Structure formats: structure tokens, C-alpha cells
């Protein structure tokens, strides 16, 4: 399914609040925060010339977030950043002085953090980020997980000392339960999706993702002409598209939002022209993207700066995982989890369809940027789908990486 953006806000400037959230100044604050993280390092940019030739485009570059902050996912940038920002802000109010990132180890700030509990719902990766952020500052974390979250991913969250609260139903059910319980217990919800009256904290989560875009723009030899980014509720897609639009202006790339066909809440929202909650159906293998209602903040951004919305099928996603694990020729191998290669799956589908190529202006001169949003965050599941364990996937660069 492919749908061009026809919203009346398309090509309009970002809402002022979103422009501030996703601005260069805000991204610089995130990067300054990262400099104080012990295991921070820019994630690699992979270049795949053989794949580009196969798809009849000029270049394919993939930002590999499987190496991000020890969590193996871009989500490490969002939830933990929001938690740390909120602790700094609360400590500043209570201590009557500005609390910088360098002050987080001080006894008075940690005493304040110890009385704070951060809650969220998760498919796995966001919960790990919130739990890690809470552990870093000495706060508590309560993570709500629905029935579709694997035991491996739950255990990965629990390793950061978080309380795990299981919820029957879908991700959206866990979001509702987290909000209800947190309100009753005076916990702070750090969600990566937003709803009426709850926008600032999801905005901080999205702000955290802008650091990934800043890194990529420094690593790329030239700005991309096309970007394909996967979406669940839309947070990372909106952060990437919005920041690129602000930085590149009229030179911004054509931006395509890619979703599972079984959980395409943004495509259906774009079709309706307003936020749509879709029916829960058969689960998708793209577990991190199995969301049935869009983030309001993300939609507000995407309706202005996304050029198209498309879906991919289950086999497309698994095929992208396998293609990245077993590259052709000199292309580097990449470990991409079930949701990590969905942007590539979208590019492959679009490149093979003459109508989509024309609609998007894809040709032999196109420079395509993708994000591998997660590595093998569930190694057993990865091995089942790819046919080999992630540790056996070669990561040789052969001079093709930045």
C-alpha cells in the first residue's frame, strides 16, 4: 500500500512548539547530554553500493543503531534522555538553582531522584531506555508490558532494576494502564506516544532521537535525497523528518513513512486526514512497530513534512533482515532486528514498483538514507527468522563504513 501525503498542512512550516523541540539548539543539548554517558559513541553509518546497484539508486546508507548505548536500539536516545531531563528540572526547582547534567552524581540531586518513579508502556526497547535512565540517576522505574513482549525482552528491562507490570491485551492497552496506575500513584509517565493534554514528555523523547540525525548528517558524504523510516506510533519518523526539514529547508529529502501492513495506523490516519485508531488484528513480526493509534505530536509533524506513507508485509520485513545479514559482494553485514530493517523493506518495495519510483522520484542518482533502528534485541527470535544467530553475522566493513 502506498499513499502520497495530501493533507492540507502538507509543506506548511512546523508548529512552533515542534520546531523548538526538534531544532538544532535542542539537538545540541541532547548531544551535550550524551557526552556524559560512559558508553556513548556515535553509531556507524554503513554504505551498501551493491544493494544500491540492485535497487537502481545512486547510494544506500544505513545508520546502524544496533550499537547505541549498550541497548541495541535507537530508543536508548529517547526515554533515558527524557528521564534525565525531568530529574534535572525537578531538582532545579527544589534546590533553587540550575542543575546541569554534570550535577547528577551529587548527593542532593540523587536524593531527589530517589523519590521519583518513572513509568511507561513498552514493546521492549523504550522500556529498557526508561529503566536505564532511571538507574543512571538513582530513580525508580515501573515498566508496563503487554502479552506480545517476549520473555527475553522483559528480562532485558528487568536487568536495570525496573519493576515489571504485565498487562493483558495490546501495546495500546498497556499505554492506558500505565497512565491510569501512574496517576493513582503519583508516578511520572515517560511515554513515546502522546494524547490530548500529554505532549511535552513525548516531545522530549523525540528530541532525544535528533542526536542520531545530527550524527548521520556529519557522516554522510552528501545530504540524502530520499529517507525511508519505519513507524509505530510515529515518534522516530517525526523526529527524523522534522529535524531534516528544519536543517535542510528547501533541500530536505523526500521522506517516506513505512509501517507493517497489519498495524498501519499512520497510513490510515493520513488517508482519513485525522488521527485514527485502527482495529487490532493478527500480530505482526515487526513487534516494535505493532501500534494501532498514532502519537498526536508525531502526526502533527508528519502531516507537514512526510511525503508518503506505505506498508510492507511480513515477508518483506524478514527478507530485509536476511538481506542485511547475508550481503552481496563487498556490502557490510548488518544485524537488524524484526523492526530494524523495515525502512529497507519499504525501499525495496518502492524501488521495484514503477508507479512508486515515479511518485517518489527514485532514480539512479538518488541518495537513500535508512536507519537500522534495532539490532537483535531478542537473539533467539532473530536466529529463528534469519537462520543464524546474530553473533555469527559478519560485521566487516571492507572500507564501506563511516
From TrEMBL:
SUPFAM superfamilies: Tryptophan synthase beta subunit-like PLP-dependent enzymes. Residues 40-359 form the Tryptophan synthase beta chain-like PALP domain. Pfam families: PALP. It is an enzyme of class 4 (lyase). One of its GO terms (molecular function) is diaminopropionate ammonia-lyase activity. Keywords: Lyase, Pyridoxal phosphate. InterPro entries: DiNH2opropionate_NH3_lyase, TrpB-like_PALP, TrpB-like_PALP_sf. Its cofactor is pyridoxal 5'-phosphate. This is Diaminopropionate ammonia-lyase. It comes from Microvirga terrae. The lineage of its organism: Bacteria, Pseudomonadati, Pseudomonadota, Alphaproteobacteria, Hyphomicrobiales.
Amino acid at each position: 500500500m502506498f499513499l502520497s501525503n495530501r493533507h492540507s498542512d502538507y509543506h506548511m512550516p512546523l508548529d512552533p512548539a515542534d520546531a523548538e523541540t526538534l531544532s538544532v539548539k535542542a539537538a545540541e543539548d541532547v548531544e551535550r547530554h550524551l557526552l556524559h554517558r560512559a558508553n556513548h559513541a556515535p553509531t556507524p553509518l554503513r554504505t551498501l553500493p551493491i544493494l544500491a546497484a540492485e535497487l537502481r539508486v545512486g547510494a544506500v546508507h544505513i545508520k546502524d543503531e544496533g550499537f547505541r548505548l549498550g541497548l541495541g536500539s535507537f530508543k536508548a536516545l529517547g526515554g533515558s534522555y527524557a528521564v534525565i531531563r525531568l530529574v534535572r528540572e525537578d531538582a532545579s526547582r527544589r534546590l533553587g538553582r540550575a542543575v546541569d547534567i554534570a550535577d547528577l552524581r551529587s548527593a542532593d540531586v540523587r536524593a531527589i531522584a530517589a523519590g521519583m518513579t518513572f513509568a511507561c508502556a513498552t514493546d521492549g526497547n523504550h522500556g529498557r531506555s526508561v529503566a536505564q535512565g532511571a538507574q543512571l540517576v538513582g530513580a525508580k522505574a515501573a515498566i508496563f508490558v503487554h502479552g506480545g513482549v517476549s520473555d527475553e525482552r522483559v528480562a532485558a528491562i528487568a536487568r536495570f532494576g525496573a519493576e515489571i507490570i504485565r498487562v493483558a491485551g495490546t501495546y495500546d492497552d498497556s499505554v492506558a494502564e500505565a497512565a491510569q496506575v501512574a496517576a493513582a500513584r503519583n508516578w511520572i509517565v515517560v511515554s513515546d506516544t502522546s494524547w490530548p493534554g500529554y505532549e511535552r514528555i513525548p516531545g522530549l523523547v523525540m528530541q532525544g532521537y535528533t542526536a542520531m540525525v545530527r550524527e548521520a548528517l556529519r557522516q554522510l558524504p552528501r545530504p540524502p535525497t530520499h529517507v525511508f523510516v519505519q513507524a509505530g506510533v510515529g515518534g522516530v519518523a517525526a523526529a527524523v523528518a522534522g529535524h531534516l526539514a528544519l536543517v535542510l529547508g528547501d533541500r530536505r529529502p523526500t521522506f517516506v513513512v513505512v509501517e507493517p501492513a497489519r498495524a498501519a495506523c499512520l497510513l490510515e490516519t493520513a488517508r482519513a486526514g485525522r488521527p485514527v485508531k485502527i482495529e487490532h488484528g493478527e500480530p505482526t513480526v515487526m513487534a516494535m512497530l505493532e501500534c494501532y493509534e498514532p502519537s498526536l505530536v508525531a502526526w502533527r509533524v508528519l502531516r507537514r513534512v512526510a511525503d508518503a506513507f506505505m506498508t510492507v508485509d511480513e515477508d518483506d520485513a524478514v527478507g530485509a533482515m536476511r538481506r542485511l545479514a547475508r550481503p552481496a559482494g563487498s556490502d557490510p553485514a548488518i544485524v537488524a532486528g524484526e523492526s530494524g530493517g523495515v525502512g529497507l523493506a519499504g525501499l525495496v518495495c518502492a524501488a521495484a514498483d514503477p508507479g512508486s519510483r515515479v511518485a517518489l522520484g527514485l532514480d539512479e542518482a538518488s541518495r537513500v538514507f535508512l536507519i537500522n533502528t534495532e539490532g537483535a534485541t531478542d537473539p533467539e527470535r532473530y536466529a529463528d527468522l534469519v537462520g543464524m544467530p546474530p553473533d555469527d553475522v559478519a560485521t566487516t566493513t571492507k572500507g564501506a563504513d563511516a
